[in-house]
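SEQUENCE-TO-STRUCTURE ENTRY
===========================

Backbone structure tokens: a row of integers, each naming the local backbone shape at its residue.

Task: work out the structure tokens from the sequence, keeping to the layout shown below.
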Amino acid sequence: MSRDKVVLAYSGGLDTSVILKWLDLKGYDVVAYVADLGQRDDYEEIKEKAFASGAVDFHVVDLKEEFVKEFVYTSVKFNAVYEGRYLLGTSLARPVITKGMVEVARKTGAKYISHGATGKGNDQVRFELSAAALAPELKAIVPWREPEFFNKIKGRKEAMDFAAEHNIPVKATSDQPWSSDENLMHISFEAGILEDPAKKPPRDMFELSTSPEDAPDEKEVIEIEFEKGEAVKLNGKALKPVDMLSELNKIGGRNGIGRIDIVESRYVGMKSRGVYETPGAAILMEAHRDLEGLTLSGGVINLKDTLMPRFAQLVYAGYWYTDELDCLKALAEKSQEYVNGKVKLELYKGNIVPVSRESSDSLYDELVVSMDDDLGAYNQTDATGFIKLHSLPLKAEAKRKKN
């Protein structure tokens, strides 16, 4: 009797390893799908683990270039941060992973997709909203939302026991009971001992960056050149997006850049604690924002700052493939027309300090702004009428308050 086919977004980690076996035991032919987003994984090892766990097929799809060019760089153009701190590394990865999963499902004739996101997390929403937009005919099988599954596997301890029972090797151990997820933009840590927001993360948990206190005692100076808001050269050397982010990750990592430890508001309604390392993207964001100060008008900066939280919220919640986000992306692209130039930064023990910027499209006029002799570039007496006009509504309000 033929079995229905399901494409599982597979990482080889604890959750997806357990789910692969579970789906196999429930009577599905499982196609293990791995999206290569630059994570430091041994894909041959993951392939062997997938087949040993019951997979009937295995696909690795290289999505690095698309991820950085279309997703990370777009977010940088918007200077997007969620709740003021999170650079959206996981949020940006999920829609591109889903796109690849849909393509594999169509290629293999699968009727279903599946993922390892729990019923408490954001990723379930991101995967399934993206799939609904791209392939509404595909149905999702989500073990973490099925009582038969979550009543047996209540947490990471039971998941590790299940993995041991079925001889599935996994990275998580009782000594390191946290979940991690890596791509070229960042690595995230959550769950386990991190669920107590009062506890400091273990020193040996971090993977992409040295501790700021152990970073070099000398500043490292770098220069990034942008064209239309996209980083194209590092220290004068032309680099493609993937190579640019990879190199900045190394530079930022050795200087202790990009660590954050936050409590964030999940889309599903609860607070969660996450620890992130985002060295390269943190540098890109700082340099890009600095260059915009030189090349964008105050009105455009204000407009982007006003809409950025909406962009970040939509990305965080999984609404990448929507008309609303398309409109915001179009705005971001238009705003970057003149964001061309170079920014020099000093990196020192976790700090990113822009120290110079230049652009042929600069809006900065040194004569107009000069506090010395400006050779008539600016008539200071004009400010009198300017202030009078802008004070008219304030005087009217003051008069009303007296009545």
